[in-house]
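Schema walk-through. Below, the input block comes first and the output block second. Nothing else is stored per chain. Lengths vary across the set, and this one has 96 residues.
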Amino acid sequence: MLIVSLVSLSLSSGLMVPVADGPPKFNIEATCRDVGKSSNSVGGTVSACRTDEEKARDDLTAKWSQYPVAKRNTCVEGAKLGGPPSYVQVITCLEM
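--- output ---
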């Protein structure tokens, strides 16, 4: 809920940072580093996280230009809130 509020705030305040023509470059190792270590974990492994992130990155690369620029900006900025950004989070946002 916090992420939605922050994204809404950034949209309404005009603080959107444009996204480059290609998909973002995230550090998959940083994204997956703490998988399985917290009490809130859903039981995933670091290896499964890397696989999911790599697949999402490849899907984003293939489909990036099909998404509206405003939606890309919103989803990438939202993925950067609250910890290391995730390709899975970006593609999930774009497909909603």
